[in-house]
C-alpha cells in the first residue's frame, strides 16, 4: 500500500474516524517532537552549542534572560 492508497482510504472514513485519526497523528507528532527536543538539549546534544552560546551572551551582558525583560508598552 502506498501513500495515495492510504489517502483514499482515509477519505473513505466517516468524519468522526478521520477526526480520531487526526488526533492520533497530532499526539504522535507531539510525542516525537518532545523526544527530539529532549535529545537535542541533553548534554552532548545538537542544541547544547546554542544554549552555551546564549549563556555566554548573558554572562557578557550582550543579552539578558527573557525573564528579566520588560514587556513592551
Mind explaining what this structure looks like?
The protein is an all-alpha fold. The mean pLDDT is 91. The protein contains 3 helices and no strands.
Model regions low in confidence, pLDDT < 50 over at least 5 residues = none
Class computed from helices, strands and strand pairing: mainly alpha
Measured by DSSP, the beta-strand proportion falls in under 5%
Instruction: Summarize model confidence as the mean pLDDT.
Output: 91
Q: Radius of gyration over alpha carbons?
A: 21 Å
Shape: elongated
Number of helices: 3
- Total beta-strand segments: 0
Q: State the helical fraction.
A: 55-70%
The end-to-end span amounts to 56 Å
Main sheet?
A: none
Reading the helices and strands in chain order gives: HHH
Name a few traits of the molecule.
single chain; 73 residues; mainly alpha; elongated
Give me a quick take on this structure:
With 73 residues, the protein is mainly alpha-helical.
Describe the secondary-structure layout.
Elements: H1 3-12, H2 15-40, H3 48-60
Amino acid at each position: 500500500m502506498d501513500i495515495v492508497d492510504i489517502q483514499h482510504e482515509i477519505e473513505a472514513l466517516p468524519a468522526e474516524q478521520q477526526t480520531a485519526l487526526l488526533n492520533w497523528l497530532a499526539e504522535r507528532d507531539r510525542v516525537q517532537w518532545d523526544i527530539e527536543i529532549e535529545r537535542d538539549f541533553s548534554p552532548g546534544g545538537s542544541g547544547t552549542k546554542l544554549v552555551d552560546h546564549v549563556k555566554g551572551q548573558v554572562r557578557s551582558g550582550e543579552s539578558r534572560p527573557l525573564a528579566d525583560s520588560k514587556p513592551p508598552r
